[in-house]
Amino acid sequence: MIPVTEKIKHIELLTKRLMHANLLGHTRSLVKGSGLEFDQLRDYQIGDDVRALDWNSSARMNKLLVKQFNDERHRTVIIALDISASCFYGSQKTLKNDLLAYVAGIIGYAGYLGKDEVGLLLFSDTVECYVPPRKGRAHIQILLEKIFSAQKKDSTTSISIALDYLIQLRKKNAMVFLISDFIGDGFEQKLSMCAQLCDVIAIRMLDSYEQDFPSLGFITVQDTETKQVHVIDTRSQNISDILKERVIAQTKLFNKHRVSILDISAHEQLIDHLIHFFKIRNR
């Protein structure tokens, strides 16, 4: 068992690498304004402030170019982390909750480095803990400790409960990272409402056996959330087909409501996968 303090140190190193790639990049508002942070050069348009003209670049390119800046307003970042029983499973040496916690920690620390307000919501089939968004190192230290010390809840997964709580917070334009295995359904209505209010990013972590179950003959399995025991014939191709169809249908649901979706697994380099995801998203 790795101490929480060591995990936090590791998070700091991983996040600085991600920030160095200038991808998660302060999670600032995409509204363009006259702030202090330079964004890009673009062609002059009628009505632009002539004081924004970059004369040196204009002379080199033989056309009028203006400097465009990012609005310096910071965003509110809320991390909604699933700690229900199904997240504490792993067919390999790494449990799903370990990886989910690392993702939550990286996002939280990136928000701190970007001087954003960062909040935390821990949920299962109810809201287990909510820490309102704030800035500062002391605050992010508290969040990281809560993330890495969260205990398994012997309960089912309710995405709707988490989404409903986020909706009631009324944090308009907040960036919400919904981190879960998403083993559950019936949350489309709440997802639609939350996506209209916030910028929602779904981060889904599934074990390899939850996507393509191996053929092992008859085996006895227990549902980690309901505790029900079943005997199943794993030689049937229907099991893997059902698992794959569920993931595809869920992805379509996220796309329908314009929710970005990132799939992660224990077999991939976590930080590289995050860098690739935010590269695509920033485009």
Order of helices and strands: HEEHEEHEEHHEHEEEHEH
Q: Compute the number of helices.
A: 8
Main beta-sheet strand count, sense and barrel state: 6 strands, mixed
Overall 3D shape: elongated
CATH class of the largest domain: Alpha Beta
Number of strands: 11
CATH fold topology of the largest domain = Rossmann fold
Please identify, by name, the CATH architecture of the largest domain.
Answer: 3-Layer(aba) Sandwich
**Biggest sheet: strands side by side, in what order?**
6-5-4-7-8-11
- Radius of gyration (Å): 22 Å
How far apart are the first and last residues' alpha carbons, in Å?
A: 39 Å
Helix content: 25-40%
Tell me the name of the CATH homologous superfamily of the largest domain: von Willebrand factor, type A domain
Mean pLDDT: 83
Number of domains: 2
Structural class: alpha/beta
As a percent range, the share of strand residues is 15-25%
What low-confidence regions span 5 or more consecutive residues with pLDDT below 50? Answer: 23-35
Would you write up a description of this structure?
The protein is α/β, with parallel strands linked by helices. It folds into two domains: 4-24 and 74-282, von Willebrand factor, type A domain (Rossmann fold), CATH 3.40.50.410; 30-70, no CATH class. The protein is 38% helix and 23% strand. It has eight helices and eleven strands. The strands form three sheets. Strands 6-5-4-7-8-11 form a six-stranded mixed β-sheet, sandwiched between helices. The protein has a three-stranded antiparallel β-sheet with strand order 1-3-2. Helix 1 (4-20) packs across helix 3 (96-113), helix 3 (96-113) packs antiparallel against helix 4 and helix 5 (159-169) packs parallel to helix 6 (188-197). The longest helix has 19 residues, at 238-256. It is elongated and about 75 Å long. Mean pLDDT is 83; it is low at 23-35.
